[in-house]
């Protein structure tokens, strides 16, 4: 299959097999490309992503992975599309670059034996960041947000292969939405989008995926205080949300949701029933 590396979706002729019958039709496939992140000329990592909003991804990843602590510490982002994928050159301040190099030296120097493995596991978990506590959201507005999801998932409607991360305002209106084949990357794109443009920060974020540990960790790094997930919540995600002061809600579908942590940010809830539920 041939496609341009910057195309997000590819049209392809396929054969549909249904009840023993074969028919030819046109289908749409989500493109998946290699994306290499290079900091100040030093290769850092290669990800698989949808080739769209990659500047936002680079900025969001750099912030959510705590390579820098503020968007002003990112001095430039350059994209180069190649036959092998996309090369993203990110220039960061010298101080942040020196810290990144030291972190890489520490990782390279570890061994995989005995008690050394315990140290590696401990170092794999970043220090907990506690988010601010001023965000508030009326749970009645969640349904309004859920009703807007389809119109904000253009690539999913074609391919069924992408996740989305969406920023909500206090009324449940989706003010920003980013899609990607990777749920982590969709969230990075959202974080990068409102950070690089100094745009209105979302009151809450709605994920079409599950809420795993990494998603909560990225949310904490970006001071996202309320995290809605349409799918499940993992145990480590719940534990980190509790420590990070994040309001975490899973299984958000059809007027229902499961609240896990820090209920005080939600209004429109019968507190008597809530006390019994948690």
Automatic annotation (TrEMBL):
Keyword annotations: Cytoplasm, Molybdenum cofactor biosynthesis
Subcellular location: Cytoplasm
Keyword Cytoplasm carried by entry: yes
InterPro entries according to UniProt: Cytidine_deaminase-like, FdhD
One Pfam short name: FdhD-NarQ
Family, per entry: Belongs to the FdhD family.
HAMAP family: FdhD
Function: Required for formate dehydrogenase (FDH) activity. Acts as a sulfur carrier protein that transfers sulfur from IscS to the molybdenum cofactor prior to its insertion into FDH.
Cross-referenced PANTHER family: FORMATE DEHYDROGENASE, SULFUR CARRIER PROTEIN FDHD
Protein name (Swiss-Prot/TrEMBL): Sulfur carrier protein FdhD
Organism: Shewanella mangrovisoli
Highest classification ranks of the organism: Bacteria, Pseudomonadati, Pseudomonadota, Gammaproteobacteria, Alteromonadales
